[in-house]
Amino acid sequence: MSVSFSPLALTRALPFLPLAQGDIDYQTERRVEPHLIAETLAEPATKVILTRDGKIAVPRGQGELADYENVKMRLATIPGAYVARELDAHPQAVAMFLGSYGGRRDEHVVAVDVTRVARIADGSERGADDAFDEPEDGTNGGVIAAGGAFGFGAGRGAHASLLEQAVDRFDWVDLRGFAPHASAREAGQATSAITLSIWHNRQRHCPTCGAPVAAANGGWAQRCTNDADGRRLLFPRVEPAVITIIVDSEGRALLQHNAAWKNPTLYSVSAGFVEAGENLEHAARREAMEEVGIRLGEVKYLGSQPWPFPASLMMAFKAHALTTDVHVDGMETVEATWVTPDEYTAALVTGRMSAPGKATIARYMIEEWLGREL
Percentages helix, strand, coil for the chain, rounded to the nearest 5? Predict the structure, then answer.
């Protein structure tokens, strides 16, 4: 009598996901406080991070590190008290209260999006990267010292304000480039900040009445400004998506190449948005049938992480294929192939295939199946 085991029997939840590392206390109960941002910025342990056009600010010179292996990156940070004065002068900037880490320092983090702040170059001779070298120059590990390490703090004067110069004072990297090189804590901060900032910049008017909106609830909501329509409260839109690694009874994985991918060697796993009124498991089975013509049996949850490009929440599954004949749709998916772990490793070595990026959930799903890090 032969005994067979499900190919999902030893599947484990994904232990690490680069965009799901946040450990900050959101302090959601404080979001309704009328002066939350101003009071938080006045606290000495508050730090501010900046976003712009869906990217995060890092110290000048660090933007080049995103494409390198085994390097560390950190956020550029500004003291809260200085930014409070900046916000008064730039109402088009959007402040977002990310939360607190508690403890003895009770550090708070506020993100400020400067996408709509006019860019003004600074004519001073001081280089931006000079502000991030040694503590003697008025900084501490990339933190701009209170009072203005750049010579700010005395109003507009001879210099434009920090928010106006931010484009040139810092390097800007997207989340996919920053998170794999950052600490877990700063990766979490960047994920929340970029997710919220993208929403604020994409939705500038009430989707019901068309009136302009204003940031509310510490930046985690928007308030419609139309008194006649009740000044409704609006919340960020999240678009659920499923992503599934399909395995057969022999332990092979089905990897596919999509038409939209510019890299011809990139192979990943099945993914797609959840339809209205659809549950996650049904979405995983439907996407597999639509993209590669495979009928799925058991579906097992692996984990989730946000993917703010612009507003997705990726929910990962591993699924057992009941059929193995591949029929790609030819529009979204142009090629799909079954591979064993050894065949996949050989394909990576020869360059015939390349793995998904380090910030993607797909990479860690493949690693779970492969049994080792890529």
Answer: 30, 25, 45
Which sequence spans correspond to the domains of the chain?
A: 33-202, 203-237, 239-370
Alpha carbon 257 to its chain's center:
23
DSSP conformation class of 311: T
Give the least confident one: 127-131, 150-154, 252-256.
127-131
Instruction: Please report where in the chains the tokens 């990139």 appear, as a residue.
Output: 266
Q: Is 314 helix (H, G, I), strand (E, B) or coil?
A: strand
The superfamily CATH assigns to domain 239-370 is Nucleoside Triphosphate Pyrophosphohydrolase (3.90.79.10)
Q: How confident is the model at residue 149 (pLDDT cuts 50, 70, 90)?
A: very low
Greatest distance between any 2 Cα atoms in the chain: 87
Query: Mean pLDDT throughout 252-278?
Result: 96
| Token duo for residue 7 | 């190919």
Distances (CA, A) of 121 to 69, 114, 116, 172, 184: 32, 14, 15, 16, 33
In eight-state DSSP terms, residue 130 is G
CB crowding 324-349: b at 16 or more within 10 Å, else e: eebebeeebbeebbbbeeebbeebbe
Mean residue pLDDT across the chain: 88
DSSP run (H or E) holding 143: strand 143-144
Q: What is the pLDDT of residue 4?
A: 58
